[in-house]
């Protein structure tokens, strides 16, 4: 499909979207382009109308693609066609008449506090660089709530142990400062003693065995392996530890605005989803504790 390449450049350089986001958008658009070519023999984007987009949505539903994924793909198309309209490539946006499928709202999956305690207190990590790094990766994800992409990009000079803070680069290249605990400071100090001995072209805090920057699959596997030891929850990803951080903070008295700032959410509505987990906890406590519950 025309204009995908220029659209991706626009996302990367003007909207300052993350490379991960741009790759996801490009994949969605290439799949949509393939649908247009196979089903309608279309190559000209200006010929796409709302009926064609509805047909595409129906085909996704027939393929049993989840409504969450479909809505994400629709969001990609909305952004793409807005870009085309802004650049006067099309006159009318065919997405304006599209109603997105309803999605079932699910609560964020998180690891409970007892399981987190088992992860850090009852699992034995070795004293070599790899094992110390593994533990610190888990500690940082849980203790700060940072995203996977932010973890990978942490530089050694982004850590201020004197002021107990870490600087991370979030979505749209927005920097934010995250506080760390004294316990986490000690973990980082122990790790840095070994890390600074490594001669690498990368200034990233965490490296692979080949002394190169970490990649997402590496962290996914690491988190999945360790969480599988302590919990039976269905999802065991780095993002689950982010959910866990926010849920535990809220359950232990932190206010939503503080959590919002630490997580780097642009609006409070994104953070409010964690209140549902807290409400469920309150219901359970009430059921167990109240004589007439």
Helical coverage, percent range: 55-70%
Low-confidence blocks of residues: none
Give me the strand/helix succession: HHHHHHHEEEHHHHHH
CATH level-1 class of the largest domain = Mainly Alpha
- Count of DSSP strands: 3
CATH architecture of the largest domain: Orthogonal Bundle
Query: Any idea how many domains?
Result: 2
The biggest sheet amounts to: 3 strands, antiparallel
Give the CA-based shape: globular
CATH topology annotation of the largest domain: hpI Integrase, Chain A
Strand order of the largest sheet: 1-2-3
Helix segment tally: 13
N-to-C CA distance = 59 Å
Evaluate the radius of gyration: 22 Å
Domain Core-binding (CB): 1-85
Protein name: Tyrosine recombinase XerC
Subcellular location: Cytoplasm
GO molecular function: DNA binding; tyrosine-based site-specific recombinase activity
Question: Can you give a write-up of this model?
Answer:
The protein is mainly α. It is about 60% helix and about 5% strand. The chain has 13 helices and 3 strands, in the order αααααααβββαααααα. The chain has a 3-stranded antiparallel sheet with strand order 1-2-3. β2 (about 165-170) and β3 (about 175-180) form a beta hairpin. It is found in: Cytoplasm. Keywords: Cell cycle, Cell division, Chromosome partition, Cytoplasm, DNA integration, DNA recombination, DNA-binding.
Provide keyphrases for this structure.
about 290 residues, DNA polymerase, domain 1, 3-stranded antiparallel sheet
Condensed summary:
The protein is mainly alpha-helical and 293 residues long. The chain is 58% helix and 4% strand. The chain has two domains: 94 residues, Tyrosine recombinase, N-terminal domain (DNA polymerase, domain 1, Orthogonal Bundle), CATH 1.10.150; 177 residues, Intergrase catalytic core (hpI Integrase, Chain A), CATH 1.10.443.
